[in-house]
Amino acid sequence: MTSTQQTDAFGAALRMLFVQAGRPTLESAAKAASRSGASLSRQRISDWRNGRHIPRDYAVVEPLLTWLTVRAIDSGAADVVPLATWREIWAAAQSEPRRR
Fold this sequence. Notes:
This is XRE family transcriptional regulator. It comes from Gordonia spumicola. By secondary structure, the protein is an all-alpha fold. It has one domain (about 5-95): 434 Repressor (Amino-terminal Domain). The chain contains five helices and no strands. Helix 1 packs parallel to helix 4 (about 60-75). The N and C termini lie close together (about 5 Å).
């Protein structure tokens, strides 16, 4: 499957959040999300960040987004996407039909 415009938008927003959060490694992001109960691999996070896939369930990605958002805000980053907006970005990507 190839990515769609909204999946690409989700990936681009996630890449920006990683930058705003100080460019943590995929390993540290996966470990931090796991401490919140999510079981995420580096590869899964990489696929989301690069727009190859999006999470099927928002609850799976929410711990990662929360951790990155807190890091970004704590570092003084401007224009950090609020978690409520992340849900909208995810929902838009989730509802868009996939191309093969």
